[in-house]
Amino acid sequence: MKSILPVLTVIAAVLLIWIVAVVPMNVHLTADQAQRDGAVVMPDTSIARKEVSGVALALENPHLIPLTYVGKRPNLPSPHQVSAEMFNTILGKKITSKRSLVYHGWVTLAPTLLGFAIGTLLGVLLAVGIVFSRVMDKSVMPWAIVSQTIPILALAPMIIVVLGAAGIHGILPKSVIAAYLSFFPVVVGMVKGLRSPDHMQLDLLRTYSTNNIQGFWKLRLPSSTPYLFASLKIGISASLIGTIVAELPTGAKAGFGARMLVGDQYGQPILSWAALFAAALTAAALVGMISLIERGTLRKMGMKLA
Amino acid sequence: MMYVIAGFAIWALGWLLNVYLANGKSSDHWAMNIGIPLIFGLTILLVWECFVIGFEVNPVFLPRPSDIIVRMANEVPRLWADFFQTIIKGALTGYIIGGLAAFAIAVLADRSEFLTRGVLPVGSFMAALPIVGIAPIFVKWFGSDWESKAAVVAVMVFFPILVNAVAGLRDTTSMQRDLMHTYGAGYWPTLFKLRIPAALPFIFNGLKIATTLALIGAIVAEFFGSPTVGMGFRISTSFGQLALDMVWAEIVIAAIAGSAFYGIVTLIEKGVTFWHPSQR
Known about the structure:
The complex is a heterodimer.
Chain A: H1 4-36, H2 46-51, H3 54-60, H4 65-68, H5 79-90, H6 101-132, H7 134-147, H8 156-165, H9 171-194, H10 199-207, H11 212-247, H12 256-265, H13 269-300
Chain B: H1 2-23, H2 30-54, H3 65-74, H4 76-110, H5 113-127, H6 135-142, H7 146-169, H8 174-182, H9 187-222, H10 231-240, H11 244-272
């Protein structure tokens, strides 16, 4: 709780930098527009203005500064434009409308959640296999670790198109990518977690003459829970990022990624920015939800939050 | 049909060999720790090759590994040019700029407890966001050459490094700080002789996470505009020409570059933080 004030201060500082940056970023565009509308601008040709930096131009024409905040196609939209657009498209439209960000959010969220569930399930299964089988451990684990260093995400759009050519459409191709991206963090985290009980605890179970399976349910699985949640938080944001990247350059018609690209291509930067921030809010909400579940689960299990 | 049977046979053979090696006496030898995963990877490649031939998979969906290798051997100059444009110019420049900026901000924020408490949560929040979505915006701002890629990469790597650096700079005990104080060390000697060395394991953790992000940023940003060279450009255009073997060749290069980048940072870490328990 005591970090609320510092956090707000940092956010305020970022906002302030943003608001200040709007002026030099947009002033050239605004100057061109103002001149067409008949205002006096120094220097008086577009080419001459290109030579001047944004800050200098704004200082020379202070009457342009307010206009930089309300341009229709700014280089950098001001915070109030973005939040107005978000308010409009999240709350102001019917959620079935193609212009509603809630609709686009769901198009992105559904494959993310499906893929995340698949990836987590497979990841946990593989981790169990790795912990119990020496062969799996020796042959698969190094690849699981190496695969973390490979920029697979960059290939997401291609995977979509290949699967689409193979006749798989709709929610599944994106889910495959989301699943793949959440898979390896879960494997690596779960292997670590399932191995976290120390020798004392394992020996104690042996004195109770438990077998491997009982040991798994009663000791290994419970003690892996904190590790699982840590990986789930990484996994879900990776899944969401994967789905968005998959939508970006593949000509997807709906979803956050498609929205960002459409705004960019049709000269409506405010649209892109609103989608970007909506995606950020979604990511934050997903991670926050998992943190809440983590808190509840660990408390019920009598563990301390790591 | 022959190839399908051969594929299954190789699969069984590779698996049995690994079972034998992993449960054998010398399975903890270092050669085994490299050999077993290598056999696993080789088995997958051979099975892939056999199944693609045996099931007559259209190369538009999945090329054979041998096609990919041949393509890589034939296209060395072009692959090298793409590598240089994307990895060295785009990713590496951005990585260095982002890393230095993050470190500078971390040192500044560290001067006040208040700022540290604010920067940590905000930074870790930002690190989980889909920052790569700024790629189209940045390509518009900075033009389509490598500068825009470097900018995307710099923003993407900034937050993980920042969070780790801030956390690391806090990671000294009051005992250690008091000792520096008794030596009469001021802010700067304490920073350079105690706090930065103590923060290095954390900072390298951030730097390692950032290596993959840097490559992703540089490649993805090229999908939105690039000169006619670069890995992202080549992937998307080869894809348009259905030259899947070229796409895979670039994927292999990206994989090798990613692992090598990570490996180099890990090596530097080993050299610089040799005193840390995790390295001994």
